[in-house]
Amino acid sequence: MPKVFTTEELRLFQRKNDNNRSWGLVPTMGSLHQGHLKLIQKAHAENAMTFVSIFINPTQFDSKNDLENYPSTIDADVEKIYTIDPNICVFIPSVETIYPDGAKARKYTLQGLDKTMEGMYRPGHFDGVSTVVKRLFTLLQPDVAYFGQKDFQQLQIVSLLAKPLGIEIRSLPTVREANGLAMSSRNSRLSDEGREKAKMIYATLQMVKSNFSSLNIDALKTMAIQKLSEAPQMELEYFEIVAEHNLNVVQSKAKGVSYRAFVAVVVEGTRLIDNISLN
Ligand code: PAF
User: Which helix (H) or strand (E) holds 222?
Assistant: First the structure.
């Protein structure tokens, strides 16, 4: 399996393997789970060459503690990618490769997509995500890039960034544990008991979906917030219903608009997010 650490090695690898067919990129921060592996399998099936980047991006963390505690399992990750195909190129850059002028995020104007939910609760997060994703696009020159729907707000933002660059964004639905908990690298920090408690997140989203046609937005939000607030040892950060195309929080339903519910909670000190399409 080719492993690449510097931009020079990367260029060499790309030149040697270029056969004029599409290149796919799956950007990750490692600690790969089934959700990542499904994206990698899709990229591998759809492209002549597939890159998986593993880089824990310091500029997208709003808390030093969260960055320091982010799980890192590079050897196991490389092994998992190897089982899909040893020819997949794993790009594991240093902080200096991504940020030659120092690890700082650029400021982005993202048509308001960053103003709600994660953008509101994690100031600067999407500037960090946008900076690293654009840098990875520049370095790896993909034709297609793959992102999961668990981070739906991120997906909308990278789609906006990719459009003028002619890079296509493809996504896959969230992969879930047997109890409904959305797969996330952060789940590895939860105890068995924590995982059990966290199943309430998806159960609440499903409840909102099944009541969507019969209740108004206010009633749906009240019901969800009550259920999540009553859950033991779970702190609710936000529950929102938004219009899917612009991620604006809505107060009422309109014809022809697709809606999504989003939630962020903290369980055992670990922040978990999830979302569901409502109609
Ligand atoms: O979704 C992630 O894992 C990260 O936000 C990403 C897209 C790899 C950027 O660091």
Answer: helix 217-230
Distance CA 87, CA 176 (A): 28
Among 154, 171, 183, 273, the mutation site with the greatest number of ligand 1 atoms within 8 A of its Cβ is: 154
- Mean pLDDT by 10-residue block, N- to C-terminus, for the chain (279 residues)? 81 65 93 98 94 98 93 97 97 98 98 97 97 97 96 98 93 98 96 96 98 98 96 95 97 98 97 98
Enclosing H/E stretch for 89? strand 89-91
Amino acid sitting at position 167: I
The secondary structure of 247-264, three-state, reads CCECCCCCCCCCEEEEEE
pTM: 0.93
Q: Catalogue all structural domains in the chain, each as residue range(s) with its CATH number.
A: 3-172 (3.40.50.620), 185-277 (3.30.1300.10)
Q: Closest ligand 1 atom, CA of 57?
A: 10
